[in-house]
Amino acid sequence: MYTIPELQKLIEQAIPAIEYPSHPKNLYDPITYIMNLGGKRLRPALVLIATDLFSGDVNAAMPAALAIETFHNFTLIHDDIMDNAPLRRGKQTVHEKWGVNNAILSGDVMMVEANKQLAQVNTGVLKDVLNTFNTTAQGVCEGQQLDMEFETRNDVSILEYINMIRLKTAVLVGGAMKLGAIISEVSPEQAELIYDFGENLGIAFQLQDDILDVYGDPEKFGKQVGGDIIANKKTFLLLNLQQAVSKADEQSLLDQSTNNNLDQKIAKITALYEKYDIRGLATKEMTAYLDKAFDALARIAVEKHRKEQLIQLSKELMNRET
Amino acid sequence: MYTIPELQKLIEQAIPAIEYPSHPKNLYDPITYIMNLGGKRLRPALVLIATDLFSGDVNAAMPAALAIETFHNFTLIHDDIMDNAPLRRGKQTVHEKWGVNNAILSGDVMMVEANKQLAQVNTGVLKDVLNTFNTTAQGVCEGQQLDMEFETRNDVSILEYINMIRLKTAVLVGGAMKLGAIISEVSPEQAELIYDFGENLGIAFQLQDDILDVYGDPEKFGKQVGGDIIANKKTFLLLNLQQAVSKADEQSLLDQSTNNNLDQKIAKITALYEKYDIRGLATKEMTAYLDKAFDALARIAVEKHRKEQLIQLSKELMNRET
């Protein structure tokens, strides 16, 4: 069995080896650029981790892993346009560097590149692989659409929020692992279990992200601590606070949304989170999803010791500060 | 054997029957909207025409035909954003109606819908179908990129122009027909021949489009006659004129590029086209590609009478005024 760092290394080696056409240069350079901005390569690694868990051939799963990473980076290019984001991993975003039109089109051709990689998997599992990949890609698009719509809505329910992060983040985690299972030719039931593990882990991961935005260590957290608060982002924490606050605090919360003193804004909203123990509530919810993930993992029919790495990885992801 | 109008009718019936998710509404409504703006459905019909030519099962080819039409409409959504176009077939473009971000994302999910349809073809031909579709889609993206780049370049050669229209328009015509051939399980040689027929027909079609921009009947031509001249678009005609003009006429041609009297601009440039017989030159080039198409068709190993409809269609396309 491979260790997770070994699988991540395989991905790291495979990415620069992908060959794109050289012409038109401005169409393909952005692909090389964003694919090499780095990152933990967790999504493609999960394809290989799932393959290895079920004793499948990790090399046979590599095209699917690269398809997942390519697709993920394509969504980053288009999301950055939609979010008007100037930076990605501290570097210029593609649309900043090449212009919006070029970024739209490079993203489009990247989606084709993802499909080209996918088409390389063994014929026997190809149809299942395509169906899982397409369902996953569709979910991610739906999640991004909901995320955009939530920005201008004031009646987002907590259930709707969970569904949005499920689509935007978690289906890709689940889908990546399901691809690995399909390539290992396990039963549909086993493939669904690893999907459930991944999806629930993904939701827990995103809830942890919401918590870290407020409580992360500024020295270690990759993004600006309080960034969601400043942007009035409807996170799991804010939506729960809005439900929990008394009439008196409701007005004070409302006032903060237009407070231009950002340090004060962060401090005041964090104080409200403390008062209503929103952190405890969010941690409880996160733990519930993590438990669901572990329940699914426990039901997977492979020797227990093969699951240990995944359990360890999950725990690390939940205790991370970055 | 089906008639071409019968195949077009099959497509017309199949399109409204495609089921998209109902939610998020703003993600999927643009798909239904653009798919139902009309058009001749020529591209998807070509998949079925090729299938029928090779005595394949037209119903088995329908998913690939719908994938081609869905992909084509996805490119229209994104192209309209890039071209900042307000109207498409006389109706608001998707980005005008739903906003640019929504249009990017609806386009993205449409690409996924195209792939979902494609994944429904018979397993035995699936890999070939995917490879042809992906190569086609990639070519179309490259063509759009080159088209955008040519707007700001002053050194576009005629060969580069032909390559651009080949990628932007003709590979989709060829690719659509090749899909039909693959689904009919013909030999790779036969599939390449119908691809060559389609690609060359597509180039001839686009050259005819360039000619019609200047010489089309304003009552019948779908677009504004002289629209390319007004926009200083580097068409086959303009590029050839630039090569052919004398020193004296070169300055007069240059002056027209900034002439705001549009009727005069059209008249003066048309006069230069006449003087150097650019229409004759373009017609000759168009005919050469049409001949190449017919040569490929002649080499296809099916009874001659089965090819008659395609020959008739090709001739109609070259003698059209719309």
UniProtKB/TrEMBL annotation, chains A, B:
Pfam families the UniProt entry points to: polyprenyl_synt
GO annotation terms (biological process): isoprenoid biosynthetic process
Keyword Magnesium (UniProt): yes
Sorted UniProt keywords: Magnesium, Metal-binding, Transferase
Cofactor(s) it depends on: Mg(2+)
GO function term, MF aspect, one: prenyltransferase activity
Protein family according to the UniProt entry: Belongs to the FPP/GGPP synthase family.
Protein name: Geranylgeranyl diphosphate synthase type II
The species this protein was found in: Pedobacter duraquae
